[in-house]
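Standup notes
- HV: blocked on the assembly model, inputs below
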Amino acid sequence: MDESVNKTLNFIEDIIEEDIRNGKHGGRVHTRFPPEPNGYLHIGHAKSICLNFGLALKYKGKTNLRFDDTNPVTEETEYVESIKQDIQWLGFSWEDREFYASDYFEQLFQFAVQLIKKGKAYVDDLSAEEIAKYKKSPTEAGLESPFRNRNIEENLDLFFKMRDGKFQEGEKVLRAKIDMGSPNMHMRDPILYRILYKPHHRTGTEWCIYPMYDFAHGQSDSIEGITHSICTLEFENHRPLYNWCIENLGIFPSQQIEFARLNLSYTVMSKRKLLQLVRENYVEGWDDPRMPTLCGLRRRGYTPEAIRHFTNLVGIARRDNVIDLALLEFAVREDLNKRATRVMAIFDPLKVILTNYENQIEQLEIENNPEDPEAGKRLVPFGKVLYIEQEDFMENPVDKYFRLTKDGMVRLKGAYIVKCEEIIKDNNGKVIELHCSYIQNSKSGQDQSGLKPKATIHWVEESNAINAELRLYDRLFTVPDPDDQELDFKAFINKDSLVKIKAAKVEPFLKSTKPGNFYQFIRKAYFATDLDSTSENLIFNRTVNLKDSWQKTQDK
RNA sequence: UGACCCAUGGUGUAACGGUAGCACUAGUGAUUUUGGUUCAUUCAGUUAAGGUUCGAAUCCUUAUGGGUCAACCA
């Protein structure tokens, strides 16, 4: 798929090309993707991953993977592995540059010492509550801590004692000495280090003081020689502090550039809310196919190509945005249309008996994908007893209904034209069986009948049909903006976001399918074989419906 | 009520002082052994008011609307 959708440059590419023209950093481009290992990656992260790795690819630069692991309370190795797997699955490589902010703890400590020596940082004895109180509010200047003017020797002594575990958690912090009157709250003597007696997933119990984000991120960028440090808009107010640290330490000047994060309609994206959905069992796990997580989308049947294509389509800018879920669906349809093998599956079987057909099985050759001649053909068994969809027959057809009706004709895909002769009903009047005749000389590819039925429908031969479970997934929320409602977002969960069809009939070709394989179930939807699927118990997840202009006209 | 940021069709994104374009969505038609695909086509936009300029979506001012910031989270 052609992923270079944008012929024009986005604003970050503008900056980079300008930097290259000016010979900044020798024209070098080096980005990084800096996840915190405290959760699973979602489609929003995919935007950032594609941006960072994509920029490096485009400008012949490099991208580091760096885990931003400065908070031992929430971070775990389990997440590190899933994050790495997801990035690789998306199709990007950080080569040998897998880094951790925790790799730099000693260096960061020395940076802090440097600041103290310059009189730019101090140890504060105020409690968390007091510090918050002293900071005041954005509209009101803050107050300086009584400990702000400790001398350098005392600060140094105290800071080393903090490191040596001489104090309790919360007893002391290291703060930058900047400006308590700044209109930017982040510049009101931000906390640089806090005491935490918590084992770290990589450094164990080596440290009992940990740097804050603002004292770790920019320096990590600088240490790695990152030229363009791309983050989301909410870090915009941190930029003066990012630059302050780099300037006062006199280290490599990485440049922070912010862009607007991805929001998707009918979806929530915050880690907190996704965690809630999992914890409170609204979904079956982080990889539930309804989740916007990469593992969820993968299980749903989304391909890396589709996701990369999607991130190209959404663009990069600085204004808040909500992307229509339809665009994500468009991206996956466009990819799958070209690549998915077409097969036949009956969701809601209606038995059809071909009264004039021999009691035999005929193997018909049917194309695997009309969009791809290379995809070849497969043999599909045909016989006297078949299943078609209940919805493909109407005794009293509505206007413009092209499918099978009493005395009407349709073509069976890749097979013959059939004519409905007789309807069998149960005691409730429900149609349970159709007796049809087939037109002998109407065989697909060698049709001599001259008949032109208006519709072609899919079917499955009864004796060779295999049972399968179909999981029909739909959007998780009933409103486009669940985040932006009076009520809690969970009040808008779509009760029908998963409908399981236990007894679908599929053609025998699918017997040997493997988890992750994807198909188009003709005239219905794209499906992917679920992780839990076995040849004895086939399970398919609906990725996305086919467009359905008939359904649309019916809905009106 | 402070600082910073943002504002182009329903959605997203271009136009870098000189013809407002592209994609999605929605509509219509053609093609089609998938009511799919493909193709053609239609609807629809510069937040407002001033100013600078021969000329403003673009520059300036003000207003309006929206976002971010007051974790020892990232």
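- HV (later): unblocked. Residues 288 and 321 of chain A are 25 Å apart (CA to CA). Chain A is about 25% helix and 25% strand.
- Next: hand off to the docking folks.
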